[in-house]
Amino acid sequence: MDNQITFSPLIIGTMRWGVWGAKLETSEVEQLIDHCLDLGLRDFDHADIYGHYTEEENFGRVIKRRPDLKSKIQITTKYGIKMITENRPSHQIKSYNSSKEHLLLSVDNSLRALGVDQIDVLLLHRPDLLMNPHDIAEGYEQLHQAGKVRSFGVSNFTTHQFDLLNDLIPLITNQLEISLLHLDAFQDGTLTQCQRSKISPTAWSPFGGGRIFTDREDEQSIRIRKAAQPLMEKYDATLDQILLAWLYKHPAGIIPVLGSSKPERITVAAQAQYMALSHQEWYKLWEASVGQEVP
Ligand SMILES: NC(=O)c1ccc[n+]([C@@H]2O[C@H](COP(=O)([O-])OP(=O)(O)OC[C@H]3O[C@@H](n4cnc5c(N)ncnc54)[C@H](OP(=O)(O)O)[C@@H]3O)[C@@H](O)[C@H]2O)c1
């Protein structure tokens, strides 16, 4: 199994590109992909459910128009959530399904929608309470042998759930919610496990889904913005960059999955990898997030 995928320093999330956010036209998606490639960012993060099962297709329209992009980009997508939507009338209840049958079907759907022959990284989106690791591993092996998927990972898994699957099939990431607004991974063992397994954790919603910029009432966001201000002045940086530099500082090698659909914001974010906060600055921001000093 190909366990050698190297992610770009910043993964570009596409969840908000379509009907769940910016409603980008195909030509705008194309410009955004080219813009990311110009910045050296070639990883794009999808899920079958984004845009109520429409976003992969939106992206795929560009790939069909520009097949040259296939060799330039790396695609992560996810399966396993069954969402209620008129686009999937057979789904009567929101549920998870990690079974081999659903896995094989989902991957074929994603390949068709994205217009690619191979998915670089396939993630099980959320831990299915009914998951049978042997069934999943069999499906993964079959997909890998068929050349449909290069490598596998999981998302939102606890350390025990990760071990259960990783014992059968090498996982290359656990995509987790990690940000100054969401600190669980620093203390629940998931980041430590990635370090021990020498895999890169990927961090969704690095800006709390935008809450850090927009929520005027949220005390935690207010404290973080206040603590970040002197650092923004010291490093001549934006708040986005400080938040990303804070993630980059962690020795687990966290790779943020950025949610912006704006080229200018992606350009700014791409510079954060070159910043180096000090230990004390990192803890200053931690303290602001938690609202008290470390014990
Ligand atoms: N595995 C999972 O369970 C899971 C769950 C959620 C998301 N994800 C992945 O993670 C990616 C990122 O998640 P996210 O979209 O929640 O991430 P995020 O980067 O925390 O938030 C993105 C939002 O913040 C806004 N934003 C960014 N910079 C801003 C600024 N300077 N001022 C004001 N608003 C700003 C963006 O608006 P603009 O577009 O206008 O910049 C966008 O609405 C998703 O695209 C998806 O691929 C995975």
Can you put this structure into words, describing what you see?
With 295 residues, the chain is an alpha/beta fold. The chain has a domain at 11-177: NADP-dependent oxidoreductase domain (TIM Barrel). 43% of the residues lie in helices and 15% in strands. The chain contains 13 helices and 10 strands. The chain has helices spanning 26-38, 50-53, 55-65, 100-114, 133-145, 159-166, 184-187, 190-197, 211-214, 219-235, 239-248, 263-270, 279-290, and strands at 11-13, 43-45, 74-79, 81-82, 95-96, 119-124, 149-155, 171-177, 202-204, 255-258. An 8-stranded parallel barrel has the order 1-2-3-6-7-8-9-10, surrounded by 4 helices. Strands 4-5 form a two-stranded antiparallel sheet. β7, α6 and β8 form a beta-alpha-beta unit. α1 (26-38) crosses α3 and α4 packs parallel to α5 (133-145). The longest helix has 17 residues, at 219-235. The termini are far apart. The structure holds NADP nicotinamide-adenine-dinucleotide phosphate. Residues 13-16, 21-22, 45, 125, 155-156, 175, 204-210, 213, 240, 257-262, 265 line the site of NADP nicotinamide-adenine-dinucleotide phosphate (NAP).
CATH classification, class level of the domain at 11-177? Alpha Beta
CATH topology of the domain at 11-177: TIM Barrel
Rg, Cα atoms, Å: 19 Å
Strand content: 5-15%
Strand order in the sheet with the most strands: 1-2-3-6-7-8-9-10
Mean pLDDT: 97
The biggest beta sheet is recorded as:
8 strands, parallel, barrel
Q: Which structural class matches the secondary elements?
A: alpha/beta
Which stretches are poorly predicted, pLDDT < 50 over at least 5 residues?
A: none
Determine the number of helices (DSSP H or I, runs of at least 4 residues): 13
What is the 3D form?
A: globular
Task: Give the SSE string.
Answer: EHEHHEEEHEHEHEHHEHHHEHH
Count of individual beta strands: 10
Portion in helices: 40-55%
CATH homologous superfamily of the domain at 11-177?
NADP-dependent oxidoreductase domain
* C-alpha end-to-end distance: 43 Å
Just name the CATH architecture of the domain at 11-177: Alpha-Beta Barrel
